[in-house]
Amino acid sequence: MEARMERAVQKRQVLFLCIFLGVSWAGAEPLRYFVAEETERGTFLANLANDLGLGVGELSARGSRIISDENIRFLLLNPLTGDLLLNEKLDREELCGPTEPCVLPFQLLLEKPFQIFRAELWVRDINDHSPGFLDREILLEILESTTPGAAFLLESAQDSDVGINNLRNYTISPNAYFHINVHDGGEGNIYPELVLDRVLDREEVPELSLTLTALDGGSPPRSGTALVRILVLDINDNVPEFVQSLYKVQVPENSPVGSLVVAVSARDLDTGSNGEINYAFFYATERILKTFEINSTSGSLHLKAELNYEAMQTYTLTIQAKDGGGLSGKCTVVVHVTDINDNPPELIMSSLTSPIAENSPETVVAVFRIRDRDSGNNAKMVCSIQDDLPFVLKPSVENFYTLVTESPLDRESKAEYNITITVTDMGSPRLKTQHNITVLVSDVNDNAPAFTQTSYTLWVRENNSPALHIGSVSATDTDAGANAQLTYSLLPLPPQDPHLPLASLVSINADNGHLFALRSLDYEALQAFEFGVGATDRGSPALSSQARVRVLVLDANDNSPFVLYPLQNGSAPCTELVPRAAEAGYLVTKVVAVDGDSGQNAWLSYQLLKATEPGLFGVWPHNGEVRTARLLSERDAPKHRLLVQVRDNGEPPRSASVTLHVLLVDGFSQPYLPLPEAAAEQARADPLTVYLVVALASVSSLFLLSVLLFVAVRLCRRSRATSLGRCSVPERPFPGHLVDVSGTGTLSQSYQYEVCLRAGSGTSEFKFLKPIIPSLQSQNTGREVEENPSFGNDLGF
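Predicted structure:
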């Protein structure tokens, strides 16, 4: 028989599965599986993958799990095979009590993607409990005048099994006076009734002892017994009668202990002790005895313990009214417990995912179920979260909800969310439950490093020591962890000097961005250079940014002034010729010097340190012009030696000196007189000396011719009274050509001057304008020669 039932159950499962596959899962009936109680742990129940039409391994890939309302782990799912196994022995009576069928609902939860399948485990009863009586001895008092056919209700036995294994029959031990009738009390309950077959005679049989046996319907059947003692009493011909045979009352579940439930009332026509009525429960269950109490005199029924609608909705009590003669009557009281909103909603969390990666699209954060043990409107619920959160609740089947992200999260804006899930029922007053969860946002490398400045300017003084720390760059990254750990590097910027590679100039600390000069820098060779720096984080993929660094080399006074004219090359000294007729302030020559430094380090000043005849010559401190300090006389020596010092304005100052030889002559026609110390050298001079003398004579002649022309122009201008300052001659303008003065005169370099004669002057003079010194430009180290415009001041005789 058991095998046939098992096959029938399996056929029903196949039939149900075929029906379920034809409709949508959202509204499908739950899958049903059957198991007998006390089945051994590990018993195979079904293959969920096959029943749901899922492929092998799909349950494992989709994150399957078995969940239930009570979180009772009575089932075990193998996600690899889809086998559903029994996780523990089940006791149907402990799980469901008298409820039939015993159904344990559970759900199969698939997380990726989210899907729920409902199922039920039906626990079949086995005959593992014997019927039992609350009292091992039942006492009956029967009047001897009782007529045959009178029936006496006996205590019913209790059997925890259900269905066919429940209580099915009663028997009485063989005797001559009584037999048993079994009556159905409704709702599957049967009651034994003892029926009198013949008149009792107290004098003959004052007491009887019979054995009452209760049998269930199991195979094999189980039984329980109780002793029935019958005392034969004298005649009491009226039994108590209740005003109502059935009382129905409704009691709110929050009624206080001791409150009145109902008052029953019975009456007896007898007098004396036979008319005195005593009220009591008639073989009540243990639950009833713990919950209610009755006043034996008044018949008032009161609460002895608190009611709970969720545990028990209806109580059926049998109350007996018994008079002093032993006769009794019975009535039934049905107590309906009404629900009040006394249970707050419950939230059962199935899964919670934290942390959540930022920038992720819609992501399931939590899966949970809500329930309320009340009924009606008291069990209707509303679920919500705060409005200012980037999350949304989505309802599903069976009061399941999913908490998902409404938009991608940004960890840099907010790294942690405290979410309060509020569940409120619709009862009066409304009750609510709050569940707090914390969701962390994990970092994704979505922010590139950012430098504190787009460009940096650093200053370093030349002649620095190698490995000198010259400055730092700094960048920040709003990401976290390895995504915020930065590595600094150098980036060359085009165009690059192949002779000065960046790697030979600076280096950078990859961890903190400190910059170091790798070599001693020379301002005169390199005033400034630029390069790029990069900051790269350690994320995957790595992000980076760049900034520009400009290094300015500061000048140090490390170069002494260099005299361009007169040259100090160790050859024959240069001699300057001065006519004895020169007036005070006559320009003898000009010392031209440069300084490789810059700024105030290149500001030059000139000073006459030593002279053959002090007071005769002077040097202008700012432009190096050597001029006569007074009129010359015949007593002045013809040869003079001047020592001029050129000093810069650095700290400490640097200087150079140059020696000038000045020869006083009566006129430019006077032959050149060599210096005594140079006589020996001139005797051995090469032919170039001869050429220089000839060139000097030519220049002197040209100079005299220019003076004559100048005098002629002056005379012409006076006669025509023309405006001053215009270079002209009586007949035609004076040609504004360039006069080339070669180095054959008193200057050892070639100069070109633009000549303009000024009319109206009291003395014969000409002016050197805009000296063009190509040879000096070639000797300059890239710096502009600073000359005073007075270099071309008037030269007079």
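Summary: The first helix runs from residue 2 to 21.
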